[in-house]
Design goal:
single chain; 139 residues; mainly alpha; 0% strand; flat
């Protein structure tokens, strides 16, 4: 427990900055304007592919570290340089895998639970644009 207290006291500015930044991002998300159109295109599919790509890239970096360029356990985090590429690969791979593990299920749920456009709505109009003159069949 003493180690945790020492760690928190040593990095309290960074911890405060991370918590404050997270709170500001959450507040901005809550204050955003609601979607104006019901059937607007949902970007969850793109974000799902992006998070899966992050997961695969992180796995590739960790595999490269494991099979080719090995980790040096004696190096501290504040001593990371180009002389220790295994440590950099491991750190970057862990960050990418963690982002993929967190965001892939979230984006999958967003994609599966997104509201569908009504069947009679052929086109959706973005806010600030005008509707086309003719929406019926051509004569």
């Amino acid at each position: 427990m003493d180690d945790l207290k020492h760690l928190v006291m040593q990095y309290k500015e960074i911890i405060v900055a991370v918590v404050t930044g997270s709170a500001l991002i959450f507040a901005a998300y809550l204050r955003r304007p609601p979607r104006a159109t019901h059937g607007a295109k949902n970007p969850a599919g793109f974000f799902l592919l992006l998070s899966l790509g992050s997961l695969l890239a992180g796995g590739g970096l960790l595999a490269a570290e494991y099979f080719q360029i090995h980790l040096d356990p004696d190096v501290q985090l504040n001593q990371l340089t180009q002389d220790h590429p295994g440590n950099i690969l491991c750190l970057a791979g862990c960050i990418l895998v963690a982002a993929g593990v967190i965001w892939t299920p979230i984006n999958l749920l967003r994609l599966l639970l997104a509201p569908k456009a009504p069947p009679g709505l052929a086109t959706t109009v973005a806010p600030g644009q005008t509707q086309p003159a003719s929406t019926g069949p051509a004569t």
